[in-house]
Amino acid sequence: MVQTKFELPIQADKLLLHSCCAPCSGELMESLLFSKIKYTIYFYNPNIHPRTEYYLRKDENKRFADKHNIEFIDADYDRDRWFEFAQGMENEPERGIRCTMCFDMRFDKTAEYGIKHGYKIFTSSLGISRWKNMKQINNCGLRAASKFPDIVYWTYNWRKKGGSARMIDISKRENFYQQQYCGCVYSLRDTNKWRVQNGREKVTIGKDFYHE
Prior knowledge:
This protein has helices at 22-34, 51-67, 79-86, 97-116, 134-146, 163-174, 185-197; strands spanning 15-18, 39-43, 72-74, 121-124, 152-153. The protein is of the alpha/beta class. It is globular.
């Protein structure tokens, strides 16, 4: 499959890439390398629950970054703060206001880190997933960027030009851990509820991996 070559939408010498997991970021990482765009991975995902799942996703992402000699910033887990922000939203549906809060929280911290370390632009791998609302994610990214001077959010649709297909191909090639729910405890709860209703086993953390 033909690799996509990107150009940053502004004049900048480096990009800060918020990453949610290895499967979602793998295609972006390889395409950015192919495009000779210097970038750093910023892993800040305090929504992921339980802790075992968090470390599975983080370690898989770092393994792939290390393979390509990409700097990997391991931000604080910050789980208690996420639960504080999520109060009152426990029963909101996926893609609802709880997800907006979650994206806002993660992007605010990414933008803040970017400003402190000389980045003029940041983006996220979250939008490549077909389970996510691209407009919702981009709105959160733009909102985070608007709070800080001299940094912008790149709203590129990473699913385009075969991005989604390459994401799966890379995940299979690398045998990435395949998570079975978005990440938070409420997503896990609702996923298991749906599985039981449809005669399927509940999620087993650490069980599933992509295969060729």
